[in-house]
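Reopening this one. Same input as before:
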Amino acid sequence: MRNRDTLSFSHDHSFLSAHQERNEKRVWLVIALTAAMMVIEIAAGHWFGSMALIADGWHMLTHAGAMLIAVLAYRFARKNIDNRSFSFGTGKAGDLAGFASAILLLLIALLIGWESVMRLVSPVDISFEQAILVGIIGLVVNLACAWLLRDNHHHHYHPHDHTHHSHSRDSNLRAAYLHVLADALTSVLAIVALLVGRTYGWFWADPFMGVVGAVVITRWSWGLIRETAAVLLDRVPQGNDLENKVISAITTDQDRISDLHLWQIGPGHYSLILSIISQAPKTAEQYKARLAEFAHLSHITVEVHQVQEI
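Same output, byte for byte:
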């Protein structure tokens, strides 16, 4: 057992998103909406002969599964928040879920692309009026889901932007949001393709738009894979100057950093290990005080070595 003195220096390892409970509830609601619309679109796509509607329906099926991964990750992280067997807490559970969701999104994009190419080779008749109506309903549902998953507290996610505009982005919520964006894109492309096909008799427009959507979604998913993989592999955070600020705060004429490790351990939480060499060493707590202004540094370890010259 730890004695009283040891307990006075201990700290928790709760490195979760500040809005995790709110995000979890929103994702559950989006799952319900997505699952209902999924059934309607897949059935309508087969009935009316629209590959774009079938593509959108299958997107919704897989995205509902991906969002289920998201809420399970939230629940796992919350239930194991005090589990000391996780050295740096469970803050990365969301990034792991986001990585899995991005892989799923990529696979589905490739599948939709393949099915669309097959429809280009072997076109089928399409009931345009009915398919357009269902496509519009699907778009409305997608926009409602996107609104539910919006993040008012941080910068919105831009699929083409891989830099960290905010220290507190929740990769798990962002992955769910990206799935909804992919659904919305597919719905828009389906509606456009059906309108063009009805007007000009271009039956190939419907599967062609499926190919376009697959290409765009592949690019989005690859960006999310790269970003979440960087967190899982403890890569130094890219796109912000936290590391440079730490170096500036510690370095003086007598103090130098000989080794530095900085990595993300949860949304808005970073861990830092510093090795400092100094001609006139101070205590570890004094060096930590220099970093007090950086609220995102949630776990700091400092070791100090005295040297004759720097």
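So the earlier flakiness isn't reproducible anymore. For the record, The chain has nine helices and three strands.
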